[in-house]
Amino acid sequence: MLRLLWAASVHTRYFLRRCMPTNILLDAIRTRHGLRWGIPAMLLAAPYLLAASICTNLIADGGPGWLNLLVLLFCWNSLKILIMGPVSLILLIRMRIQEAVARRHMQHEQRASTSVQTAR
């Protein structure tokens, strides 16, 4: 039974990573070239919050209860996108620092090798 639940959760996660729009967006932002789009992507949280507000108003006016699931989904997606903005900025800064350190190390090695070659 546990094995069946584990397999179902793995397949569900794979499906959600591959097909859901916010997960596709977040995977694209997590790449090296996509990190700079984290802050502008935070603007996409606004339509999700608007949709959650509309569904909440519909529920308050006597709408069906299953709209609560949509409200939860919209709020979750907006939170994911809102959190990814600052996280992508931190990751971008960290990546740029690592690249600068590697570049400086490479230049230092090149200077050292040319000074050894000119001394011979």
Low-confidence residue ranges: none
Output the radius of gyration: 23 Å
> What is the terminal separation in angstroms?
72 Å
Question: What assembly state would you assign to the polypeptide chains in this entry?
Answer: single chain
Average pLDDT number: 91
Q: What percent of residues are in strands?
A: under 5%
Compressed to H and E, one letter per element, the order equals HHHHH
Give the proportion of residues in helices: over 70%
Report the principal-axis shape. Answer: elongated
* Number of beta strands: 0
Given helix and strand content, the structural type is mainly alpha
Tell me about the biggest sheet?
A: none
**Number of helices in the DSSP assignment:** 5
3D structure, described in words:
- The chain has 120 residues and is mostly helical.
- Helices cover 83% and strands 0% of the residues.
- The longest helix has 53 residues.
List its traits.
single chain, 120 residues, mainly alpha, 5 helices, 83% helix, elongated
What's the topology here?
Elements: H1 2-19, H2 21-29, H3 38-41, H4 45-60, H5 67-119
Helix pairs in contact: 1-2, 4-5
